[in-house]
Amino acid sequence: MNLQIGKVMNNNSATALPTDDAFGQTGAVQIYIESLMHGFLPTQYHWFRPANAGTGGSSSFGTSCIPEIGSYVWCFYEDELLYKKGFYVWNVNLLFTNPHDLYQDNIQPKVGSTSVYPDVKYIYLKNGICIGMSSSLTTPEITIYHPTGSNIFIDTTGSISINGTLVSIKNEVQSMKTLIDGLLDLLTNFATAGTSAAQITDPATKILIAAEKVKWALLLKE
Known about the structure:
The protein is of the alpha+beta class. Helices cover 23% and strands 24% of the residues.
């Protein structure tokens, strides 16, 4: 098996010819290999299917991570004599392709991470989405970052911070309301020497309790 460095020219296999076995959502990419395809028309570049290590090949489970257009991959032909049945296997980082400082430059200062290269293992997409994990024993952190700045960050102590313009906790709102009602009753009992919220007759105290409930309802985005 002779590995070749190829450049991804088209990553949408749905545009392949229907007669090509790469046609459809197959994960195949169209690759240009300088030493083999110099002078080829773009329509003549070969399609290569994925051959990545992972959970194995199946239609019931697996991973889908299609290389971006313009990126470089190692590739090979199963039939090296006729240059047929091409596969790509993994990324190539050449001197001018270096994604290994993206987390430290773009994510670390925004989430308060203390993990550094080479401990941080991450996926950084072209739109700025990043999922990172640190393998360091002293900084075991997890980061999920959105290009708007919203993020979920688990720091070295296990504390979780959630930052975003709007944070919604689905299916937990009612239980949180119940908890808040209970806390308000507890505070009322403390402030009124054991009188429950339902037993309060003083209008000023009732207004205070109602105002607190409205405030929490707004926070919970009723």
